[in-house]
Specification:
heterodimer, A: about 750 residues, alpha/beta, Rossmann fold, 5 domains, seven-stranded mixed β-sheet, 24 helices, about 35% helix, globular, B: about 425 residues, alpha+beta, Nucleotidyltransferase, domain 5, Serine Threonine Protein Phosphatase 5, Tetratricopeptide repeat, 2 domains, two-stranded antiparallel ribbon, 16 helices, elongated, nucleic acid binding (chain B), YprB ribonuclease H-like domain-containing protein (chain B), RNaseH_sf (chain B), YprB_RNase_H-like_dom (chain B)
Chain lengths: ~750, ~425
């Protein structure tokens, strides 16, 4: 059988009646400017050798603005030559003065490695002795000394900066004394808890620079988000110039919304998105069209992967289709990235792990299993498909969730909407205090010294009382045996990850991955089915105390899904809005979480085929919350019905809110209670799933009017008759649920 | 809600530093003024004076010992004997005192507030000793509380003027830590001088790593130097005790640490004497001789290495004798004295331990094949080596041997058939 080309496949797809929207993005010509004369001639020559004799407009403005001494944030889509935005000024500075130094920060080790090889290629062609090194956990002790003393460009990640470089700054004197530029790539990834940590790490970095007398310029690059400048300013504490005149060319892109057929008309239930994705991806893969499939969870990745490998096993061999997600070991990931670049891997199924700038080359087709959850994320994933001069196809397959349905049925909402805001809260007390400790370890604090936005004298005194600092005159000194950075992980609430140990082969027990503590509660409990690289494992024992999960390979036809019971207590109300019959509050709450049972769900039909208990200790969380309180309720609505209505509204909010405050679904939780513990009133809580809160609930409080309007809009636009899983969850006898929910919402 | 009450609520989520000071007394003092030194009398009674610099101060404790004072096996007067001997020999060595006088050595040890290196790990005690013509002077510069680093380093740097540091693990701990702390205040104090550095930890590992479970100074002291300490406070308690002192100002508890540090420093003198005597072979053959010979061999001092091996062959234990013969054989081979080498190895093939037998058989096979052109004997020894190998547990090195040997056998067989 002759293989079809991508344009053949696109032609066929046009006939497909499940496609409810077809959006074409016109190809774009390049916009360029001549290389500025002041660029060092050796750099010019090296660039010309690589076929670059002119700069794209954004690269040009980046260079010129940095030359003027301004801090910049450049917003660029995938594959637009963003690295030149920072490499050019940095190389120029070192070419001008061999003493100059630069520090590059990438969110992951993998991105740092990529960057080093790209940078070294240019440097070799320049013929200047510029030393660039990565500095991470893998750097051998023998090289470390050399990096510290002689590295012009040090490429690292925030974690390494936090735990290895800053606490030992005295070994990096030549870097800090001469630091001219700090490059922060993938700026948009520094949001939420991680971003709040990183903002504090940067405060520490700036303190150290000041101590050594340098005042570096920040060069940041970011994917498209609504507030790149604000985020960069929050992270670096400097005012920023935004560079967004992207001049890179792109080929024609087809952006297609695919809605699976309805299988149950009154309930508005559609065929599973996963099944449809399998079917679509198979067509591309069979025709040797390089395709990336995005799925929203690790489990989903593994399910799709196992289906696809099975489907195309005969034609392609299962090695040509791979999974990619957190929890795979670095070596595995490098191998997959390489395979994609070289074309030996035709298909990859990934979580949003591949949204980041990991270099996998440009693919032809991108399939999304459901709406990725944010406009920014969607464009990032879409950017994986599309070579500079070829056509590309992006298909978003909607699931039955309310937001997916809303998006595909209101394409203008997506295509006209500006992407989301990235929020951080560097002033989160827990995060701030952690970094104050590290900062004090690095250099003593002086009374009145600033560290971020809060007055910190009171915090320093608290740490003196806690016997962590010692006050002598107007200075505060570290006075403890410990090394504070080791106790503080930038990545998650808990440092401790659960290690996953495969004991299928008793003689050869191996570690196959790891997972954070909170996810492990629902994914690695006893008897859970854990999928890794398409292979099913059953958890034989989760040793919670030692944070180890022992698994064994199995072959079963189901996966598992765990339930989590949640309790809430209000500790303190900070702010309130009182309306006629309702109130909205913002304050502090305690959340208690306990996983209860898990269900076994058949892989093929997704039906429930059994369940079992989970025995794990309760976890407690103090955090910020916004809650909606109903003070007077129409008595005609019975308690049972009201409970359902609250659930319905909570269901809609759980989907709407992450979109409005830009966070992962797991970062903010929505829980409804018919009788809240503290008031006995019907209440819906929205809380940050991180100790101390990271500003999401606060954002909900501030922008509740927008969120309410979006929720009402979603419910009224839904195609179902009287409530379905795509909006308020379900229908109720004898009541217009949709209207009732809207009426309730409008009271807030 | 105030920040502090919020902090108290979040306490369970906070990373807590382990509670260390058992005695909780709240410090009311915000600053110490130059004139007002708490417990000054107690300090004075314990050989300590106060050093003032700018608005700040530190303590300096000084203790003197007569040269004939016996610390463990040796009296300190031995040091000059050792230095004379170093200046008399012709070979070089990393610990060589050639060109140095006993007064040029600077025996140095610090105490810090933590174990892991880093900017926040404060040195609270800089201790050192040096030997004059009449006595040993031990001096300790003590940080009264964090924040008094400038007088601490100022007083220290004013007083040091020596050629070579002698430390125990100072190359990777004390000295880098000192450099780190110095960097933090380098605007205010003199530069750090350049030093030679004898790190006795590395020397001790070479000599006693197989013999001692842990090559810590305290273990070396008891097992090798014959020093006995009474009521010593273990070094790992130092940070805890120091913080307690900082809080309560009463130096009583700190004196234990000062004594501990003083003894550590005195042991450095004895240890340098002891190790030097071994390297210089001043006590004739000892248990350490074989290690010393190998060390000299390793650093390329072949001549003195050979004579030390010879000494071991004369008076060493059976095991050491074989080790020495084995090493000597390699020396002879290098000097193209093939017959002498062969004789030595043949002896080892008979009496050596399993690994020595294998290596010696291989060497005999090589000599026979390449030097004496005796293919039959070469084959004989190769097969012997293979038989020995089969008796031991396989690992990477062993399988490499095996491969090489099999290749050798087939080559030898080809040669034999060709010749025959």
């Amino acid at each position: 059988m002759k293989k079809k080309s991508l344009s053949d496949v696109i032609k066929e797809l046009r006939m497909n009646e499940q496609i409810i929207h077809w959006h074409e993005i016109e190809p774009k010509e390049a916009r360029t400017k001549a290389l500025p004369d002041e660029v060092d001639s050796r750099i010019q020559a090296a660039l010309k050798k690589r076929g670059i004799d002119r700069l794209y407009t954004h690269q040009y403005s980046a260079f010129q603005t940095v030359q003027k001494g301004e801090h910049i944030v450049a917003v660029t889509p995938t594959a637009s030559g963003k690295t030149l935005c920072y490499n050019l000024p940095v190389l120029q500075a070192i070419a001008e003065n061999n003493q100059n130094r630069a520090l590059y920060l990438f969110p992951t080790k993998a991105l740092a490695q990529d960057q080093k090889s790209e940078l070294n290629d240019i440097i070799n062609e320049m013929g200047i002795d510029i030393k660039s090194f990565t500095y991470d956990g893998d750097t051998s002790p023998a090289i470390r000394q050399k990096v510290r003393k002689a590295g012009h460009i040090v490429i690292t990640n925030p974690d390494m900066l936090h735990s290895a470089i800053l606490p030992h700054h005295t070994k990096w004197v030549s870097l800090f004394e001469n630091l001219k530029y700090i490059v922060i790539d993938e700026l948009h990834t520094y949001r939420g808890v991680f971003g709040s940590h990183v903002a504090n790490v940067i405060r520490r970095l700036k303190r150290i620079c000041q101590f050594y007398g340098s005042n570096p310029i920040f060069i940041c690059t970011s994917a498209t988000i609504a507030n790149p400048r604000e985020l960069a300013e929050q992270l670096t504490g400097h005012s920023m110039r935004l560079i967004d005149d992207n001049g890179a060319p792109s080929g024609r892109k087809h952006f297609v919304f695919y809605n699976p057929p309805i299988v149950n008309q009154p309930l508005n239930i559609r065929k599973s998105a996963t099944v449809e994705v399998n079917h679509l991806a198979k067509q591309f893969l069979q025709n040797n069209i390089q395709t990336i499939v995005f799925a929203r969870s690790r489990v989903r990745v593994e399910i799709i992967l196992s289906h696809l490998q099975e489907l195309v096993k005969k034609e392609l061999g299962s090695k040509s289709i791979r999974g990619y997600r957190g929890g795979y070991l670095p070596k595995q990931r490098r191998e997959i990235e390489k395979g994609l670049r070289e074309g030996s891997i035709i298909g990859v199924v990934s979580t949003n792990a591949l949204e980041l700038g990991v270099d996998i080359g440009q693919l032809q087709v991108c399939v999304m299993t459901g709406y990725p959850g944010s406009v920014a994320s969607t464009w990032q994933q879409a950017g994986r498909a599309g070579r500079r001069h070829d056509e590309a196809l992006i298909i978003m397959v909607a699931s039955s969730t309310p937001i997916d349905q809303y998006i595909v049925q209101n394409p203008d909402y997506f295509f006209d909407r500006s992407p989301e805001y990235a929020r951080i809260n560097p002033e989160n007390l827990i995060i701030l205090v952690d970094h104050l400790k590290c900062a004090a370890y690095e250099l003593p604090f002086r009374t009145g010294e600033s560290f971020g936005l809060l007055e910190i004298d009171e915090l320093l005194e608290y740490l003196v009382e806690e016997r962590v600092l010692h006050q002598n005159g107007d200075k505060f000194y570290w006075a403890n045996q410990s090394f504070p950075a080791t106790n503080i992980s930038l990545r998650s609430a808990s440092q401790e990850n659960v290690v996953i140990i495969d004991q299928s082969d008793v003689a050869n027990v191996t570690i196959i991955g790891e997972m954070d503590r909170f996810s492990a509660m629902t994914l690695l409990h006893d008897e859970a089915i854990y999928l890794h690289e398409g292979i099913q494992y059953q958890v034989e024992k989760l040793d919670w105390e030692h944070k180890k999960a022992y698994v064994r390979k199995v072959d079963v036809e189901y996966y598992t899904d765990a339930n989590l019971a949640v309790q809430l207590k209000v500790l303190e109300i900070d702010r309130s809005v009182n309306r006629k019959q309702t109130a909205i509050h913002y304050g502090d709450v305690t959340v208690n979480m306990l996983p209860t049972i898990f269900k076994k769900i058949r892989l093929t039909t997704f039906e429930n085929i059994g369940s079992g208990p989970i025995y794990l200790p309760e976890e407690e969380l103090h955090t910020s919350s916004t809650w909606l309180e109903l003070r007077e309720v129409d008595e005609e609505i019975g308690e049972k019905a009201l409970e359902q209505l609250l659930l319905g509204i909570a269901h809609v909010l759980q989907h709407i809110v992450p979109i409005h405050v830009m966070c992962d679904r797991q970062d903010i939780h929505v829980v409804s209670q018919i009788k809240a513990n503290h008031t006995g009133l019907p209440t819906i809580f929205l809380y940050d799933h991180y100790p101390g809160g990271i500003g999401l609930a606060e954002d909900v409080y501030k922008r509740f009017d927008d969120i309410r309007a979006a929720a009402v809009h979603l419910i009224s636009q839904c195609l179902c008759e009287n409530g379905c899983p795509s909006c308020v969850g379900m229908e109720l006898d004898g009541m217009n649920v949709k209207q009732a929910c809207i009426d309730l919402l409008k009271q807030f | 809600m105030s920040l502090k009450s919020k902090l108290n609520r979040f306490k369970p989520h906070m990373n807590r530093e382990v509670e260390q000071n058992p005695l909780q007394t709240k410090s009311e003092e915000k600053a110490i003024h130059q004139v007002d030194i708490p417990y000054e009398d107690k300090w004075r009674q314990n050989d300590t004076s106060c050093y003032h610099f700018d608005e700040s101060y530190c303590f300096i404790r000084e203790v003197r010992y007569p040269l004939d004072y016996q610390h463990g096996r040796y009296s300190f007067s031995q040091l000059q004997t050792i230095m004379n001997q170093w200046n008399a020999v012709s070979f070089d060595h990393p610990l060589s005192g050639k060109g140095l006088d006993s007064g040029d050595l600077f025996f140095f040890d610090t105490e810090t507030t933590g174990l892991s290196g880093g900017a926040g790990n404060t040195i609270f005690l800089l201790g050192y000793a040096y030997v004059t013509e009449t006595e040993v002077i031990v001096r300790q510069h003590i940080l009264p509380q964090p924040g008094h680093e400038i007088p601490l380093y100022q007083s220290f740097l004013e007083r040091i003027n020596y050629e070579t540091l002698v430390t125990y693990n100072g190359k990777s701990f004390d000295w880098p830590q000192l450099t780190t702390q110095h960097t933090l205040i380098k605007e205010h104090v003199p530069k750090l001088p350049e030093f030679g550095h004898f790190d006795l930890y590395h020397a001790s590992r070479r000599l006693w790593k197989d013999q001692l479970e842990r090559v810590k100074l305290s273990v070396v002291e008891t097992d090798i130097l014959g020093v006995e300490r009474v009521n010593d406070i273990p070094g790992y308690l130092a940070p805890m005790i120091y913080f307690d002192f900082v809080e309560r100002k009463d130096p009583e508890i700190l004196f234990g640490i000062l004594k501990h540090n003083e003894l550590d420093i005195l042991s450095l003198i004895s240890l340098y004497i002891y190790i030097s005597r071994q390297i210089l072979q001043m006590d004739g053959h000892t248990d350490e001789s074989i290690k010393v010979a190998r060390w000299l061999d390793y650093i390329g001092e072949q001549e003195v290495a050979v004579s030390t091996y010879e000494a071991v062959r004369k008076s060493g234990s059976n095991g050491d004798r074989l080790t020495a013969s084995h090493a000597l054989a390699f020396q002879k081979k290098r000097q193209k004295q093939f017959q002498e080498a062969l004789d030595l190895w043949q002896e080892i093939v008979k009496h050596g331990n399993s690994q020595q037998r294998i290596e010696a058989s291989i060497e005999c096979a090589k000599l026979h094949e390449h030097q004496f052109k005796d293919i039959v004997s070469a084959l004989d020894y190769t097969e012997k080596a293979l038989q020995e190998i089969e008796k031991i547990v396989s690992n990477k090195k062993v399988s490499k041997w095996q491969e090489d040997l099999e290749r050798r056998i087939s080559r030898l067989k080809r040669k034999r058939n060709h010749d025959g």
